[in-house]
Amino acid sequence: MIDDDEDVLLAAKMLLKKQGHHVIIEKNPKKIPFLLNNDSYDVILLDMNFSKDITSGKEGFYWLEQILAHDPTAVVILITAFGDVEMAVRALKQGATDFILKPWQNEKLIATIATAIRLKQSYNQVDKLKKAKEMLEEQISKPFGDIIGDSGSIKEVFALIDKVAKTDANVLILGENGTGKELIARAIHQRSLRKDNSFVSVDMGAITETLFESELFGHKKGAFTDAREDRPGRFELANDGTLFLDEIGNLSMSLQSKLLSALQARVVTRVGANQAIPVNIRLICATNMPLHKMVQEGTFRQDLLYRINTVEIRVPPLGERVEDIPLLAQHYLAYYAKKYHKLVTTIASEALDRLKRYAWPGNIRELQHAIERAVIMTDSATLQESDFLLSRSLTSGPANNTLNLDEVERTAIAKALQMHNGNISKAADELGLTRASLYRRMEKYGL
C-alpha cells in the first residue's frame, strides 16, 4: 500500500493483518520501482493524490502507468478522498482493477481485496498454463513416445516401472547415452497418479551456472539483463506433476547444493524475489555417470544421491537387448518412410543380421540415425546392407577379422570410449595416450 498519510497506512495494515495478509506499506511513491524489483505482490493499493497535487489524481495515474509498464498483470486498486464517477471510469480504462474512496468501510475494503487476490491468482494460473502448454506442445512434437522391445532385459525395466509408477517415490534412471532414459521417465509419469498434470523435462547438462536458478526456480522481470518478464521456473511448471532432471551427474558441487535445498524444503524463490513458492513435484532423475563412484571421489553429494535414488532403474544398452533390434529398426523405418515420403517398407535379412552384429556404442539413438540416413539415401523399397555405413571394427563376426593396424587402433579407441561412457580423459588413460593424441585419432577415424 502506497499512501503519504501515515495514519491511513497504519490503520489499513492493522486491519489487513487481522485477515491474514502480509502487508508492505510505503509513504514515498518514488520507491515504487524499487519495491516492484524487490518482490512480487498479489495486490497493490495506490493512493491517487500525494503532496504535490492533492485533488487531480495525476500522480496516481502516473504511478499506475509505471506499475503496469513493469508488470502488465499487476492488480492495482486506486484510493482517493477526492474521487468521482468520471475519475473511477478513467482509472478502470487505464488498467486499474478497482477504485475505493476514503474513508472506506472496512468490510468493503476487505471484500475488494479478496476479489482482487482471486483475480491475481487467476492471472498466475493462466500464465502457468500458458507456459505449460508451450512445453507440452514441444514435448508432443517429439517422436517415438513408446518404449519398443520384447527382450528379457527390457521386460525387467517394464516390471520396475509398474511397481514404482503409482507411488511418489523419487526415481534415478541409470544408463548409457541413447538408451532411452527419458522415455522411461515419461512411462513412469503416464502410469502415475499425476498423469493428468505436467511432465517437465530439464537437461541439466545444458544449463549454465549463471542460468541455473532462473531456469529451475524462475525469475522476476528486471532481475537481470535479459529478464524482460516474470517467468516461472521448471519447478513451478511441474507443480502437481513430474519434474525430470536429465544428466544430473553433470552438475557442479555448488549447483548440487542449491538443488538439494529446493528438494528438501519443497519451496523455490524466483531470482529477484523474496517470496518463497511451495511446490509439489514427483522427482525423476537420470544420468550416464557413475554417481556412486562420484560420491566416493567427492564429486557428487552423498545426501543429494540419497534424496534422488529411492528407487534405481538401470536401462540396458542396446548390446544387451539384441533381439529388440529388428523391432526398433522396423519402428524407425515406418516413421522415417512416412516423414520423408519414401516407399521403403522392409529391411533385407542380411542388413538386419549386420544391424544385430554391430556394437551400437550410441545405442538406440545411433540406430535411429542409421535408419534415418538409410531411408533418405536408398532408391529401393527394401533397405540393403550397403545402405548402412557401419564400421567394420564395431561389427562382430567374419567382417571384423582383420589385422589392419588402422582398424585395430580404431577398434581399441571405440571400445575405450564405450567403456568409459565417452569420458575422454579416462579413455586416454586407458589407451596410454594424451587427451590431444586421442582427439587427433578420434578425428582421423571419425569417432
Written overview of the protein:
The protein is built from 18 helices and 14 strands. The strands form five sheets. It has a five-stranded parallel beta sheet. The protein is an alpha/beta fold and 447 residues long. Strand 9 and strand 10 form a beta hairpin. The chain is elongated and about 95 Å long.
**What top-tier CATH class of the largest domain fits best?**
Alpha Beta
* Global morphology: elongated
Mean pLDDT: 87
Strand content: 5-15%
Helix tally?
Answer: 18
Question: What about the largest sheet?
Answer: 5 strands, parallel
In the CATH hierarchy, the third-tier topology of the largest domain is known as Rossmann fold
Keywords: ATP-binding, Nucleotide-binding, Phosphoprotein, Transcription, Transcription regulation
Protein name: Sigma-54-dependent Fis family transcriptional regulator
Domain Response regulatory: 1-117
Modified residues (4-aspartylphosphate): 47
